[in-house]
Structure formats: structure tokens, C-alpha cells
Amino acid sequence: MPRSPSRTDVRPAARRRRGRLRRILMLVLAALLVLVLVLSGVAAWSVVRAFPQTDGTLEVPGLQETVTVQRDARGVPTITAARADDLLFAQGFVHAQDRFWEMGFRRHMTSARLSELFGESQVPTDTFLRTLGWHRTAQAEVAALPAEERGYYEAYAAGVNAYLEERSGGGLGLEYSVLGLQNRGSSPEPWTPADSVAWLKAMAWDLRTNIEDETARALLAGDLDPERIADLYPGTPSTSIR
């Protein structure tokens, strides 16, 4: 026998429920879209607010005369000044503009204070670095510098600190915004000449990789003639760069 066609009537109440669910879904999607836009805006602002001012005029206390900073297409600065102390002051200011997070991080490393930034996981590293005593040595060397040379380091530090007077927290770099989420009490200390000199110790440590060869060559030099030493440790062929 042929089956009679079936029929389902949709009641008005069910239709209203479907319409209400559709509106709720649209509101949720709209709220998510707004949230994404807000978070994107906050993220962009967090990055952009740390960018240095690279045009116009800046009034910076501490300079004796006007200094000009020109940047090429890659952002590399060229500093022109009439006085050596102004030149070094501006160099410190520009370095802080471009890369203070790196400077601050390296200062914590050379002074064996990484755990202040990253917690207990860095205590073994700090213990090792404190044993090396880079920052203590730098402080002693700065104290022994002639007044003129020490003044150069002080001018550079004054330029860094002039920038730190203008900026704080995330304004110094996106990394400080992230760091502030776990370490709200952290803020950069004023820069000192010893902070600059201490990095020279870290650079020397990084360049020590051939110390075994240098030591062996020095010991052999007392027993072998120069020609034999040259055979064992040939020099690097010189190449001209045009």
C-alpha cells in the first residue's frame, strides 16, 4: 500500500527558541570579535610605545650643546657633536633608545643577578658568575681610571640615565611589559660606568674559546724555534676586502 506523506508542524515556541539561540550565538561571536580587536590593539600599543623617537627635536637635560642623530634606511644612527662628552652622552641615550632591554639583561648577567629577573632557576648561574666577579673587577678598574677616561664612561652613563628618566616599564621595551606580569616590583636601576666596563669582561670570556691553543703555543715557544711554531700554528691568510 502507498504510504501517506508525513508532515511536521513547527510550533511558534520552538521557532522562538531557535531565534533566541541564534541571537545569543551572534552576540557571543560579536563579543569574541571585540575581545580579539581589543587584545590586538593592546598588543600593538605595547610594542609601539617602546619605539624610539627618530625625528624631530628632543629636549634632553645634560647636554652642553646641540647634538644631531641621523639614521639611515636601516635605522643605524650616526651621531654628530661638537664636544666629546656630548657625543658619548648621546651615544648612551641612543643605545638605551634602541636596546635597553638587552643592556639591562646583560647588566644583570655580569653582576650575577639574573635570579632577580627570572627567579630561583637562575641561582646556580648567578653563583657561578659571582665567583668570576666580573662586576667587582669592573668597579675596581673604573676607580683606577684616569679622570679623563672615567669622565667618558660617566658621560655615556648619564646619557643612558637621561633616557631612563623619560621612560619606565613597558615604555623601555616589550620585554619589560612581559616581565612586569611576574615581577611587578622590578624597575631598572641607574646605569653606572662599571656596568659598561663589566660587559668587556663578558666579551673576553666569550672570546676565550681558543685559550687551550694559545696556552699550548706559549709553552712550546720556549722549546721550539719560530719556524717550527709557525708550522704547528699557521697564521690565517690575509685577504683584502674591497
TrEMBL record:
Q: Name one Pfam family in it.
A: Penicil_amidase
Q: Which top-rank group of organisms is this from?
A: Bacteria
What InterPro entries does this protein map onto? Ntn_hydrolases_N, Penicillin_amidase_dom1, S45
Concerning its family, UniProt says: Belongs to the peptidase S45 family.
**Protein name per Swiss-Prot or TrEMBL:** Penicillin acylase family protein
